[in-house]
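WARN retry 2 of 3 for item q-0093 after timeout on previous attempt; input resubmitted unchanged.
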Amino acid sequence: MDLRLTFRSLVWVLSAVLLTTSCGPGDFPEDPRSEELIVLDSALGSVDMHNLMSDTDIAGYQTVTPDQVQSFLASKGSFLAGYRDPALGNKTAAALIVERATAYRINPVYILARIETESGLIRSGTSRNLSKATGCGCPDGSGCDAAYTGFGKQVECSAKTFRNYLHDLEAGRTTVSGWKAGVAKNTLDPCTVRPANNATAALYTYTPWVGAYASQCGTSAWGGSSLVALLYREFRDSRSWGGSCGVGGAILTRYNQLGGAGGVLGACTTSELTTPDGVGRYNHFQKGSIYWTPETGAWEVHGLIRARWESLGWETGVLGYPTTGEMTTPDGVGRFNHFQKGAMLGSIYWTPETGAWEVHGLIHEKWAALDWERGVLGYPISGETATPDGVGRFNHFKKGTVLGSIYWTPATGAWEVHGRIREKWAELGWERSTLGYPISDEYAVSAGRESEFQKGFLTFHAATGTVSVRVK
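OK item q-0093 returned
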C-alpha cells in the first residue's frame, strides 16, 4: 500500500476523533434539561438499543422547510424561535438547521432532536448552551473547540460529522471509533450493542452510550443515543413535516428515462432546487440525484460514485457538473460518470475491488490517451493527490496485480510509470529520488522497456527481469 494514502487516511481518522462527542466511562455530561422536562421525558418510553432509528429516518430530509421548523420552535417556546446568528448573515436558527441538514442529506428533525439532547435549547426559553448546541467538537469533560463555537457552526459541524460517519458505513467500512451495522461493540455504559443499521451505528459513534431510555441493559445514565432516538420520534410524530416534492423539465425527462420512482433513483426527496453556485438545478431522490445546467443537460449520479462526488464538494468541487449518467465500462467490470468544470474534464470510476476514485485535468487526459481502464494502467485506486514536495500531482492505478501511476508537474506534464520500473522508482524514493519526475511514458528498447526521468533512466531488462538505473 502507498504510504501517502495511509497518511491521508490517518489524518482523517485523527480529525474525526477530535470532532466526536465521546466521553469516558462514568464521565457523562451534565443534564441540560429543566426539572419539568426531566419529568416530561420520563413518559417517553424506551427504544430498542440495537435499532434506535432507521436509515430512512436519518435520510428523510425531504421537503422540511424553514417555516415548518420555525413554527415548531415557536410551539415549544424555544429561545431559538427568535434567534438569528450574527456570524452567519443573521440567518434564523430555523433557516440554518434546514440549510445545513439538507446540504449533508440529514433529516432536520434529527438535528432538532440532537440539539435538544445536547443543549436543551429546543424546549428552553433561555440561551444557555447556545455555543455548544449540538455538542460537536465539545468532548465531555473538556471545553469546546473554538472553531465550532456558535449556533450555526454547531449545526454545520453536527450534520457534516454525522454524514461522514454514514459515508464510511455506506462504503462498508467501520466508523472512526469502530462502529458498524451487524457488528457487536460495547458502549460506555457499558452495554453490548449490535447495531441493526447504519443510522444506529452512526448514532453510537456520535454519542457512544445508550442512556436510561433503553431498558435492555438496565443503565441509568440520563441521556445517550437512546434519548436522541426518542426525542426524534416525539418531534417527528408531533406534526406533519414536509410535503409533496415536484420534479419537472429536463430533470423529469431524465428521471422518467431511468424508470421514475420505480427506477434506480427511487422517489424524490426534494423539490427542484438551485445549486449553491447559482448555475444549475437539481433534485435529490431516495437513492441519488439528478443535476442540470443549460450547458451539460440533466444527468443522474448515485451510489458510491455520488458519495465520492459529494466528498469532493459536489458541483462546486474540482469536478464540476456531471456530463453523463452512470454507465458501465467497456470491460463490464466497473461503472463511471464523466464531469466537467469549465474547460476541465474529469471522471469518477468505480469497481467492487477498487472503490470510487476521481481522475481529472491533465492526468485524466493522459489516462484517456492510454485507453482508460483498458490500457496499461487499469482502474484508479486513488484520487488525485499532491506530491510530498508540493510540486506535482498524481493518481495511482491498478490492472490485475500490476500497479501504475500518472505523475504531473507544470514543468514536466503528465506521464505514466508502471510495473517493475515503477517498483524500482518507488524503491529509490519516487520523485524525491535522484531521478526526479518521469518525463516520458514507458517505451520499448532493445533490452526490454524503459522510462525517462528528469535526471536519468530506468531500464527493465527482459532477459534478467532486473531494472537498472542510468543517471544523465
